[in-house]
TrEMBL record:
Native source species: Collinsella acetigenes
Function: Molecular chaperone. Has ATPase activity.
Lineage, highest ranks first: Bacteria, Bacillati, Actinomycetota, Coriobacteriia, Coriobacteriales
Binding site for ATP: 29, 33, 75, 80, 88, 95-96, 117-122, 167, 351
Record's protein name: Chaperone protein HtpG
Main location: cytoplasm
Assembly and oligomerization: Homodimer.
InterPro entries: HATPase_C_sf, HATPase_dom, Heat_shock_protein_90_CS, HSP90_C, Hsp90_fam, Hsp90_N, Ribosomal_Su5_D2-typ_SF
Protein family: Belongs to the heat shock protein 90 family.
Compositional bias of kind Basic and acidic residues: 538-550
Amino acid sequence: MRKFKTESKKLLDLMINSIYTNKEIFLRELISNASDAVDKLNFKSLTDNDVDIDSADLAIRVSFDKDNRTLTISDNGIGMTAEELEKNLGTIAHSGSQEFKTENAESQGNDVDIIGQFGVGFYSAFMVASRVRVVSRAFGSDEANMWESDGLEGYTIEPAERATHGTDVILTIREDEGGEDGEGFDAYLSEWGLKNLIKQYSNYVRYPIQMMVTKHRQKPTPVDADENYQPEWEDYQELDTVNSMTPIWKKRASEVEQKDYNEFYKSTFHDFEDPARTISFHAEGTLEYDALLFIPGRAPFDLYSKDYEKGLSLYSSNVLIMEKCADLLPDYFNFVRGVVDSADVSLNISRETLQQNRQLRAIAKRVEKKISSDLEDMRDNDREAYEKFFENFGRGLKYGIYSSYGMKADELADLLLLYSAKEQKMVTLAEYAKAMPADQKAIYYASGDSRERLSKMPVVTGVLARGYDVLLLTADVDEFTFQAMHSYKAQGLPKVYEDDAAREAAEKAVADGAEPETEDRTLELKNVATGDLDLATEDEKKDAEEATKENESLFTAMKDALGDKVEKVAVSARLTDAPACITTEGPLSLEMERVLRRDPSAEAEGMPKSQRVLELNAKHPVFKKLVSANEAGDAEKIKLYAGLLYDQALLVEGILPEDPVAFAASVCELM
């Protein structure tokens, strides 16, 4: 017996037990090696006129013997001499494929696609096999040799018989260990198990992978059969090609019908609906790869659960490396499914995980841009489809802005759809900005649990009455998203002129045939229920100031009656019909407070409360009642009115009073 040419026991043990985390990938590695061997012979036939082979005959064959517990992977490729068996299999981590790639780097072209790089894939066979035999005959040689090892201390090499060039790798599969947690080695000795593994990992290897498969057919009807004859069926074995060979993502989009993409998507990603969008592209240059991406037609049930795994299937030279490579997608595009195939991505030694490198980042960046541009195209040219998409996946886009603290706002803001109270439909921020009056300086929004309630809130109707639109936000992440954004840069808005002379000159220029001037403007995002919107006219501001001075004692009495429920009581310049409303100061709005309180740990952690302000409409008849009570010195009535106005303002906001019983009693007392 010959010893391995490295510290065999330690290194081989590392190969078997540490590098690979999933035993079933051994078949992928052996098939990849066989594909490399066939590729080398194919390359030789292209560069050497004396080598005459028919490329249509090149193939890989998988067979098994359940009784003897053997699994054989055969190819009719380049084969190996005894010296090459010694060099390639006797020295762990020596890669004949990598050596071949290096020697022929300039002349390979597109007709050769060597997969192997590290020279350790072969040893993954010992994860499932107690013994491995390799019978190989080099192309052009009359002699065959057999390499054999149990994967422990060493190996033997001796003469053998093989009818033609190529290599057989024969694995003696280990016995099942039994029990619920048994290794399940018997699956590697079943037609169903092997076919599944080939389709999962090696479906797109460029050469046919053949197996004897069981099929079902009707027996011929006997010549003397009468009218009561019942057809009989039989099972039979037939050599069949198991893999698809040509991956759909390698084909140009013009060569594939949409129905074929749809079928591939549904069968690969286990969806029953066609995708909403298909994105196919090929990148060339210093980094080459093919990508086929799908935007699903519906959201998977677990999309927003912690168990959901994002990622694209990553292939290297048509061989599956990772089923879900999370690094290829940002979180806000986690709904996208698809495939990226690149021979240029640097893999780690087991091909199961990726090295963190610039190639991967470059692919991810390009993928992100392609998804964004395709969504923009859908938004602009198929609005109905985009609204359905946004209903399914818009939450993730909003969360992408919020979770990045607004850093991704430039990329994602124009993909948002929000409900316009004025237009009564979904609009983009750009559409909202283009429809604004010339004097509008901010984008106004209101947050709550329903559009119907929000549209009737006094703070919303007051803004609408002034001719400004209000976006009605009803998702729990909406206001957090807008807080992270702070503002929106609207492009191509009509230019606002500082004085009448400049405006009149511009109007005259347009009348003479000039193009209207436009400008980009940064618009602040303002919640209509927080802070000062600065919408009041000078007369309204003056009236509010006078009412505040004249009734200072009333506001003090109402603040004392409400205690720490409010920060202050003030005259409102935003109300039109309602007697009062609740607004807030500071960054925490009523809606944000309500969302945060849904967290079971909110109370225990002492969650901060919003700074509430009770605003009164000085022109409403109720205000006159309050003034009269204050002038009469009726403190009890002021206390009653203050509590009622505060509680009814909360109800308008969709918030229950702290003491509903006391509220009901106060209403009855007033009646």
